[in-house]
Design a protein that fits this description.
The complex is a heterodimer of chains A (422) and B (488). Chain A is α/β, with parallel strands linked by helices and 422 residues long. Chain A contains 16 helices and 13 strands. In chain A, helix 3 packs across helix 4. The longest helix of chain A is centred in the last third of the chain and has 19 residues. Chain B contains 22 helices and twelve strands. In chain B, helix 6 links the parallel strand 4 and strand 5. Classes of the chains: A alpha/beta (422), B alpha/beta (488). The interface between A and B is medium-sized, with 22 and 20 residues.
């Protein structure tokens, strides 16, 4: 089975959870010998792992340019051959010479999430038309709303079934105040999709209720985690017998509910002094949070270490006794799983999708700061609870693998194809 | 001749309220009054009252042929007294028919048997007295909370003077043996053991209304046929369950009470009798000792204590709770003792279980085991603080106990001396015949400094009236002792 996948992020360049999930899904699928994945990215950096075929959309011509073989070879990266280039060139379907192309006839992408995101999304879908005409595949799989137009285009061109993967909806990002442009793109993608995979039951319900999709084609497909590398596993857990550390790690933005963490911290600190709080990350609400902490008079016990990347993240998990994710609306939320891998018990909001597959975590409502404070206090005070959550949590999270997710995705592919041609 | 021993357990816990750690040290009331009233009223209405009425009817109609045993936990009884006294009236009515035997169990429905022998003994005997007070007869047969039993618990129960004990006919203990015989405790042959037939018991309490069960619907005559068809030598069939199985676990709409009602008649037709546990334990002969090295209970498929003490959280809570057991027993603060009874109830630990398949487990206000643990530990934190403020924590229990014993003994001594003084003063009055003296002496005897004054003027006139020497002497003796005790 050949899968044409559209994605916006892929490791090693990580902007958010989407890259990790895209990696996990493709890696999991690559373990099935009969699945061949082609992954289309706006702008690969060239250092991606080689277990799947990657097409850089910035290398696909949309305007006919005549170059000889050697010139093309010198201009395109190693993972692509000049033959690929010529094949794409043979499938240009319209005159795009009015567009801003380079000497190869290709579009440039800024990558990531630049200001002209909507233009990039549009360009991405134009190029997808070329790719869909030149590639052979059985099913299309588009990750997140940025690539839905590309997926829809590919479906219309090729007549192949389309799966879309909902990693988040605009309802999660905006607490209900949706951006109409984004909503229309999302809705259009879902309307055209033959199968909608959502990262949680929570998201699935949003898709059904807010986007009015047929429940029969919407499925929950929970994310997973990759086992920690030996290097990360060997990071030491510092001794915290005297003072405990409670951590929030993520974008400091409305969706993640940072203010509830601060309020819970202030409740805990009214009763005990041997606990420190740490809010790692950056975001539009950082300043507001620093103000709030100062207002509550807990700044001596509340720390803002700033944005963390790579190994720092895991050091931070390992240096914590409790990880808290009070998200107001979290489609999945991979962070608690990572914290559990590091042996740190997690408290998550009931509004988090990952809670659906985790039992060895404490779940509270995001607004229930009393319950959250109580849970923080309990884990810091009662060693048996800490130890139980640590050991059982680790065991549980080790069972959640991308391999199993990919098997489920595969089954959905088969079903979708069968239904599509019936 | 086969005989059935039918036994029902009545227990409802005092529900704990949502107790945050901010409340520690500020709020010493731990209970959810609304939930307590609501749940006990509901259970009484839906289960206890109709079930007891049926039992009373069965007892009256079958005139001594039908017999049943019931046990109540102390905390459950308190709940009934407060919110559903009509159930107690029904129990009295049932008692008046003479067909019921009341058994004894630990007051708190707790796990003291696994932790603290003295506490276990204390609360069991307290319950025995309470049952005697209520129903006029001291129970002779014991059932531990959730039928928890091991050889050691058996020995402890035998030492309290019980003749028999009920426990689970757990397969891993019995092996090839049948539960349809009377056994005895391997450590004390005087304690007979009645083993629950879990198949026949669960047929009623678990499966009766289950329409996917192969025997559904179950009729009383089929049920009695099963018993009648058992091998001739298997004579004692113990059917034990919670009373709330009738009406709560098996809804009344399943006609479970009609089923129950028909049992005595069907049994009589097949020559099967009913017996109370005491009858079995006194008249029946034990066939063999039963060795139970590890704790068994009637809960879950494992029939062990893992649903209360299976995970580390439960064990921490359990150990913390019983770490103050001795202190609580020594003290005489009534509220602490009361809280102690309520906190011990094994249900509190069951809420924390993380076992995957717990049949019909209702965690009450708790979302999950961690929630239950956190709430309980917060309450326990406050409770332990209160216990520790009673007596300094740095005195160990033995020392404290000996100090308290000394104080108690001295108190008794003083009381005795007071009586002695009073007696002597009365004697003195006889001799003197003086009238003003007794009025003063009577109230004065109670106060420590007063007797000195009172004694002195009395002692003075006494010799004048030719009081003989021997009588003055005891009065003098009493005086120094008084001052001595005062110093202490």
């Amino acid at each position: 089975m050949k899968v044409l996948m559209f994605g916006w992020e892929f490791p090693p360049k990580i902007y958010g959870g989407l890259a990790v999930a895209s990696y996990g899904i493709t890696k999991g699928l690559s373990l099935q010998p009969d699945v061949e994945t082609t992954f289309c990215l706006p702008k690969p950096c060239g250092e991606e792992e080689k277990f799947l075929r990657i097409i850089g959309m910035n290398q696909v011509p949309i305007v006919y340019r005549d170059h000889d073989w050697n010139y093309v070879r010198s201009r395109i990266p190693d993972y692509m051959t000049p033959e690929d280039y010529y094949r794409f060139r043979d499938h240009i379907y319209a005159d795009f010479s009015y567009m801003n192309t380079n000497d190869m006839g290709c579009m440039e992408f800024a990558g990531g999430y630049p200001g002209n995101l909507h233009d990039e999304i549009n360009n991405f879908s134009i190029i997808a038309g070329v790719v869909a005409r030149s590639e052979e595949f059985d099913i299309i799989h588009a990750h997140d709303w940025l690539t839905y137009p590309a997926g829809v285009h590919a479906k219309l061109v090729s007549g192949k079934p389309l799966c879309i993967h909902v990693h988040a909806t605009d309802f999660d990002r905006s607490r209900g105040k949706v951006n109409p442009t984004v909503y229309s793109i999302e809705k259009n993608g879902m309307d055209h999709a033959d199968c909608i995979m959502c990262v949680s039951e929570l998201t699935r319900r949003t898709v059904i209720n807010e986007y009015h999709q047929d429940p029969a084609k919407v499925f929950a497909m929970h994310n997973a985690v990759y086992p920690l590398s030996q290097e990360l596993q060997d990071l030491p857990r510092p001794d915290h017998s005297k003072e405990k550390v409670v951590t929030f790690l993520g974008r400091i933005t409305m969706q993640k509910g940072p203010e509830y963490f601060v309020e819970a911290a202030s409740l805990v600190l009214q009763r005990t002094r041997n606990i420190r709080f740490c809010m790692a990350g950056s975001g539009d609400m950082l300043d507001a949070m620093i103000n709030l902490v100062a207002e509550r008079g807990i700044a001596d016990r509340f720390h803002f270490p700033g944005f963390m990347r790579g190994k720092q993240v895991y050091e931070c998990y390992k240096d914590s006794d409790v990880f808290v994710m009070p998200s107001v609306s979290e489609p999945f939320g991979i962070a608690p799983l990572e914290a559990m891998q590091c042996g740190t018990p997690s408290i998550i909001s009931k509004q988090s999708g990952c809670g659906e597959i985790l039992t060895n975590v404490i779940k509270t409502d995001y607004w229930d700061i009393h319950a959250m404070a109580d849970a923080i206090y309990a884990i810091c005070t009662y060693p048996s609870l800490f130890k139980y959550l640590q050991e059982e949590g680790l065991r549980e999270v080790n069972e959640i693998t991308w391999e199993k997710v990919a098997q489920r995705i595969r089954r959905l592919y088969d079903q979708t194809i069968e239904r599509f041609y019936k | 001749m086969k005989t059935i021993c039918l036994y029902f357990e009545m227990h409802q816990i005092i529900h704990l309220k949502r107790y945050r750690f901010f409340d520690i040290g500020r709020d010493h009331y731990y209970y959810d009054d609304y939930e307590n009233e609501r749940s006990i009223t509901e259970i009484a209405e839906r289960s206890y009252v109709p079930a007891l009425q049926t039992l009373i009817a069965m007892a009256r109609e079958n005139d001594k042929y039908f017999k049943v045993a019931i046990s109540l936990s102390g905390v459950g009884l308190e709940q009934l007294e407060l919110h559903a006294p009509q159930v107690i009236d029904l129990l009295q009515e049932l008692n008046a028919t003479g067909c019921v035997e009341f058994l004894c169990e630990p007051y708190s429905h707790g796990l003291a048997a696994l932790a603290n022998e003295d506490s276990f003994r204390e609360e069991s005997l307290r319950m025995r007295d309470k049952i005697k007070e209520l129903f006029g007869k001291a129970p002779k047969v014991f059932r531990n909370s959730s039928l928890i039993y091991s050889d050691e618990i058996g020995a402890q129960v035998a030492a309290m003077g019980f003749k028999g004990m009920l426990t689970e006919g757990a397969k891993h203990i019995l092996g090839w043996k049948s539960p349809h015989f009377i056994y005895h405790c391997s450590l004390n042959p005087n304690l007979k053991l009645l083993l629950r037939d879990y198949k026949l018991s669960d047929d009623i309490s678990l499966r009766f209304s289950d329409s996917s069960w192969s025997e559904y619907p179950l009729y009383a005559d089929t049920y009695m046929d099963w018993i009648a068809q058992m091998p001739e030598e298997e004579q004692v069939i113990n059917i034990f369950m919670e009373l709330s199985a009738l009406g709560i676990f098996q809804p009344l709409s399943s006609n479970i009470l009609e089923f129950l009602h028909a049992l005595p008649q069907c049994a009589r037709e097949r020559g099967i009798t009913f017996s109370t546990p005491t009858e079995l334990c006194t008249k029946g002969k034990s066939v063999a000792p039963l060795e139970v090295p590890y704790n068994i209970s009637w809960v879950d498929e494992e029939r062990d204590t893992s649903c209360w003490l299976g995970n580390a959280m439960q064990r921490e809570a359990f150990n913390k709770l019983y770490s103050v057991a001795d202190r609580v027993r020594i003290c005489n603060d009534r509220r602490i003792k009361q809280d102690w009874d309520y906190l011990q109830a094994s249900n509190n630990f069951r809420f924390m279980t993380t076992k995957p398949a717990s049949v019909g487990l209702n965690r009450g206000i708790y979302d999950n085991p961690y929630d239950a643990f956190t709430n309980y530990m917060n309450i326990l934190g406050d409770f332990i603080n209160r216990v520790n403020t009673l007596y300094p924590a740095d005195i160990d229990n033995e020392e404290l106990n000996s100090l308290l014993t000394t104080i108690k003994n001295q108190g008794e001594e003083i009381e005795q001396k007071d009586k002695e003084i009073e007696r002597l003063q009365k004697q003195l009055e006889k001799y003197t015949g003086a009238e003003p003296a007794p009025k003063k002496a009577a109230p004065a005897a109670k106060k420590a400094p007063a007797p000195k004054k009172a004694a002195a003027p009395k002692a003075a006139p006494a010799p004048k009236k030719a009081a003989p020497a021997p009588k003055a002497e005891p009065a003098k003796k009493a005086e120094p002792k008084k001052t001595a005790t005062k110093k202490k």
